[in-house]
C-alpha cells in the first residue's frame, strides 16, 4: 500500500503545484492588463505626479486585497469600465497643467523686427541673448556701424573692452547659424537728407549729427520702410504691418560698476598702476546721443536697461596656483623664509599659534596685502594714479633742491 500511495501523492502534489502556478500567473496577467487599460490614470505626459492607484497596484501582492477606488465627495463623474468590471473615476485632463504663468509672457515677442544699437550689444547683451533664444520670433538686425563700434571698443583690458569682445563672440556664434539674426546689407540704408526730423531743438541741425549716428539711423529707417519684405523672406508674415523697434540703452552704467568685476582695487597691486586710459570711442556705447536722434527721426524706440556682466570669483578667493595665509604658502618667497622670520611672523599673530584656542583665528596684518607699503610709497602711488600729475624721476647723482 505504501508503494501505491507514494507515486499517487507525488503526482497530486505536482498537479496542485502546476495549478497554483497557473493561477498565480493568471492573476498577475490580469493585474497588468488592468493597469494598462485603465483610463483613469491618463497619459503620462498629462500627469505631473504618479497616480495613487498605479502605486497601489504596483505594491499589491498576490494575496493582498485590492483597495476600492475613492469616489469624489461632490459632483458627478464619468466612470470608465475596466477589465474586471469595476468603476474608476476619470481624471480631468489639463493640457497646461504644471506650466508657470510667466512662461507665456516670456514667449511673447516684443516686436516683429528689432534693430539693435551698439549700446545694447555692449551693456545689455542679456536682452540680445533672450531674443536669440529658441522659441522666440523676433528678427534681429545688427547695423554695420554697430559692428564697427565693437571693433573700436574691444581693444584693451578694460571692462568695456571685455564687454565688447563678449558681444562680438555672441554675434559670431549666432550670425549664420540662427536665421533670425541678420547683419545689415550694404544697400540697406536710406539717404540722410530724405529723413524727416521733428522736434529739433534750437541751434541743432541735421548736418551737425556725427557720421556714425547717421549710418545707424539710416539703417533703422530703411528697416522701417522695408519691414514687410524682410518679414516675407522669413516666412512669418501675419497679414498686418510688421512692427519695427530700435533698441537703445536707457542710460549708461556707472564706470565704477564696470571695473568692479575685474578684481581688487588698484591699491592692492604690488606695483604702482598707471592712470586708466579712457577710450575715445566710449561715447558710442552710451546710447545717449543715438537715442536723441532716433526719437527725432520718427523711429519707434525700445529702451532697455543694462544687464549685469557674468559673475566672477569673489575677491577673497586666491588666484589659481596660490594659497591663502590660513591654508599654506601664498607665493614662492614664503618657502625661502628663515626660521627667524617664521618666529617673527608667529609673534605678530599672523598665523595660528598654540595659544589660540580651537575655533579662533589669529590676528591678520592691517595691510591686508602681501607687502606692507610705507606711507611714502602709498603717496607716490596716489600721485602716479592721477593723470594730470607729473612725477619727476631723479637721475643718478642728482639731488633734490631743498
From TrEMBL:
Residues 114-188 form the PIN domain. Residues 90-106, 323-344 have a biased composition (Basic and acidic residues). Pfam families: PIN_4. It comes from the Eukaryota. Residues 35-106, 255-280, 308-374 are annotated as: Disordered. This is PIN domain-containing protein. It comes from Antrodiella citrinella. The lineage of its organism: Eukaryota, Fungi, Dikarya, Basidiomycota, Agaricomycotina.
Amino acid at each position: 500500500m505504501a508503494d501505491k500511495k507514494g507515486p499517487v501523492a507525488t503526482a497530486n502534489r505536482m498537479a496542485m503545484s502546476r495549478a497554483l502556478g497557473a493561477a498565480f500567473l493568471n492573476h498577475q496577467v490580469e493585474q497588468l492588463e488592468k493597469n494598462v487599460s485603465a483610463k483613469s490614470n491618463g497619459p503620462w505626459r498629462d500627469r505631473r505626479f504618479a497616480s495613487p492607484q498605479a502605486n497601489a497596484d504596483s505594491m499589491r501582492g498576490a494575496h493582498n486585497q485590492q483597495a476600492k477606488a475613492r469616489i469624489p465627495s461632490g459632483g458627478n463623474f464619468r466612470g470608465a469600465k475596466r477589465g474586471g468590471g469595476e468603476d474608476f473615476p476619470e481624471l480631468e485632463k489639463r493640457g497646461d497643467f504644471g506650466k508657470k504663468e510667466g512662461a507665456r509672457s516670456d514667449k511673447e515677442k516684443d516686436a516683429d523686427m528689432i534693430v539693435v544699437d551698439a549700446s545694447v550689444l555692449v551693456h545689455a547683451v542679456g536682452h540680445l541673448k533672450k531674443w536669440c533664444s529658441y522659441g522666440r520670433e523676433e528678427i534681429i538686425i545688427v547695423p554695420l556701424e554697430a559692428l564697427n563700434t565693437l571693433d573700436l571698443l574691444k581693444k584693451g583690458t578694460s571692462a568695456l573692452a571685455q564687454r565688447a569682445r563678449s558681444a562680438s563672440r555672441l554675434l559670431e556664434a549666432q550670425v549664420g547659424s540662427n536665421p533670425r539674426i541678420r547683419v545689415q546689407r550694404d544697400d540697406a540704408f536710406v539717404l540722410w537728407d530724405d529723413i524727416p526730423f521733428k522736434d529739433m531743438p534750437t541751434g541743432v541741425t541735421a548736418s551737425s549729427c556725427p557720421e556714425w549716428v547717421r549710418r545707424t539711423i539710416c539703417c533703422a529707417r530703411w528697416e522701417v520702410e522695408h519691414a514687410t519684405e524682410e518679414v516675407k523672406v522669413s516666412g512669418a508674415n501675419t497679414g498686418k504691418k510688421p512692427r519695427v523697434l530700435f533698441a537703445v540703452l536707457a542710460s549708461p552704467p556707472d564706470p565704477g560698476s564696470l571695473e568692479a568685476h575685474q578684481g581688487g582695487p588698484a591699491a592692492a597691486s604690488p606695483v604702482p598702476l598707471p592712470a586708466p586710459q579712457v577710450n575715445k570711442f566710449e561715447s558710442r556705447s552710451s546710447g545717449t546721443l543715438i537715442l536723441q536722434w532716433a526719437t527725432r527721426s520718427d523711429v519707434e524706440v525700445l529702451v532697455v536697461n543694462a544687464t549685469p556682466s557674468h559673475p566672477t570669483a569673489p575677491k577673497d578667493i586666491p588666484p589659481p596656483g596660490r594659497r591663502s595665509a590660513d591654508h599654506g604658502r601664498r607665493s614662492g618667497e614664503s618657502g625661502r623664509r628663515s626660521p627667524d622670520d617664521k618666529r617673527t611672523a608667529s609673534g605678530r599673530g599672523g598665523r595660528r599659534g598654540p595659544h589660540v584656542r580651537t575655533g579662533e583665528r589669529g590676528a591678520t596684518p592691517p595691510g591686508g596685502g602681501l607687502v606692507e607699503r610705507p606711507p611714502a610709497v602709498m603717496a607716490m602711488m596716489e600721485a602716479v594714479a592721477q593723470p594730470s600729475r607729473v612725477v619727476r624721476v631723479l637721475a643718478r647723482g642728482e639731488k633734490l633742491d631743498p
